[in-house]
Design a protein that fits this description.
This protein has 403 residues and is an alpha/beta fold. 39% of the residues lie in helices and 19% in strands. Strands 4-3-6-1-2-5 form a six-stranded antiparallel beta sheet. Strands 10-9-8-7-11-12 form a six-stranded parallel beta sheet, sandwiched between helices. Helix 1 packs across helix 7, helix 2 packs across helix 4 and helix 5 crosses helix 7. The longest helix is centred in the N-terminal third of the chain and has 31 residues.
């Protein structure tokens, strides 16, 4: 069991909060510069999120500050710790990688803060780092073991073949994947993702997470990927992946998933390509014969960007109490309300509160950050408790050690 942090360490780490507020981003950039000198460590990270304009350095800066500010109340960070552990498992981060991060972090603190980073301060941060690292290592070991022991489960990278490519919209393709070895595949929890290792000519190895967009079936996975502007991995998939393409895949992971069934209504709320985990959840609810009310609410630009609409409606029609509402923000000139979409414009807070059972429902939300932020805020202000609001967002995670 990890030893509790000493009172002296807690006091010293909290004392560095003002310095982190002032110089945290410089420390993180220096930390990444040091780590990336080792190609094996560099390749664990999503390079598109790093650099001077990258989002990951800002996210990690905020996460380190949050850790320091809550060092005496780490229970508040428990959900973030689980997110980190799940992402680390997807990226195949192992115990032997942690010393490299520790060395880079402590070296960066010393390099940026200079004489202010006394031996006492560095020792305190070393203790604090390894306290969190040991918690993560233990949790990740349990996840790796569960993956290995599951029927169809595996550790490391497994080869999957693209069996079929489906054009879902003007910007989204689905890829049906089956294991090259012909064995079964681990049953994921609807909402979880797969991590992919792409070897794209002219680039270092690229790792990306894509939500599984189908319920478990023991034989295949489906991912549905939006072509992102300047997106290296998504562009390669859209341009190069075809029937027969082999992809390296890590076992399903992620802390955002459909919880154990209850008597509560379920609201699946998504924006854009955020529908991918929602489709998996909807399929699972229908296949399980759930008789609770299910509200599937989705917003997108127009008919051309609306992925999987017919599939969703066909799936909903097999359910016992499923209601589908589609919003098109800017319908095309020839679109007809009631045929191509249900409501024009965006999903407003007024509509959400008035048309979903806020007093009873469990909400699952996925989409771009502004969409997610607005939806969570609206539901919280409407009195929905946090344990009934579950969400997933795109981009780098806002927590310590996220890769």
């Amino acid at each position: 069991m990890t030893q509790p942090l000493s009172d002296q360490t807690i006091a010293l780490v909290k004392a560095t909060v003002p310095a982190l507020e002032a110089h945290g981003l410089d420390i993180v950039h220096e930390m990444y510069s040091r780590m990336f000198q080792n190609p094996d460590i560099r390749d664990l990270f999503n390079q598109s999120h790093h650099g001077d304009a990258g989002s990951q350095p800002r996210a990690l800066t905020g996460a380190i500050l949050a850790y320091a500010s809550n060092i005496e109340n780490l229970g508040a960070l428990a959900p973030a710790v689980e997110r980190i552990a799940q992402k680390h498992v997807g990226l195949q981060i192992l115990p032997e990688h942690y010393p490299h991060v520790a060395e880079a972090l402590l070296g960066a603190i010393k390099a940026v803060l200079g004489d202010a980073a006394t031996d006492e301060i560095l020792a305190a941060w070393g203790e604090a780092y390894w306290f969190l690292a040991n918690i993560l290592i233990a949790r990740e070991d349990r996840v790796y073991t569960a993956q290995k022991d599951a029927t169809g489960g595996w550790n490391g990278w497994r080869d999957f073949r693209v069996e079929r490519v489906v054009r879902e919209s003007s910007v989204i393709n689905s890829y049906i994947l089956s294991p090259v070895d012909g064995g079964p595949v681990m049953a994921h929890k609807p909402g979880q993702y797969l991590t992919f290792w792409f070897e794209i000519p002219g680039h270092p190895p690229v790792k990306r997470n894509y939500s599984i967009s189908a319920a478990p079936n023991g034989e295949t996975y489906r991912i549905s990927v939006k072509r992102e502007p300047q997106g290296l991995a998504s562009g390669w998939l859209h341009d190069e992946a075809k029937q027969g393409t082999i992809l390296k895949v890590a076992a399903p992971a992620g802390e955002f998933f459909l919880a154990d069934r209850s008597e509560r209504p379920v609201v699946l709320l998504s924006g854009g390509v955020g529908l991918t985990p929602m489709v998996a959840m909807l399929e699972a609810l229908v296949e399980d014969g759930a008789d609770v009310p299910v509200h599937y609410v989705h917003g997108t630009h127009d008919r051309q960007t609306h992925a999987m609409r017919d599939h969703v409606r066909a799936t909903a029609a097999r359910g016992k109490a499923v209601k589908v509402i589609d919003f098109h923000q800017t319908p095309l000139a020839d679109e007809v309300e009631g045929r191509d979409y249900d409501a024009a414009g965006i999903i407003t807070d007024e509509w959400l509160v008035a048309n979903t059972p806020v007093n009873e429902a469990t909400y699952y939300i996925c989409g771009p950050r502004p969409f997610l932020r607005h939806a969570v805020s609206t539901l919280s202000l409407a009195g929905v408790p946090s344990d009934r609001i579950h969400y997933e967002f795109f981009g780098p995670a806002d927590e310590l050690l996220a890769a």
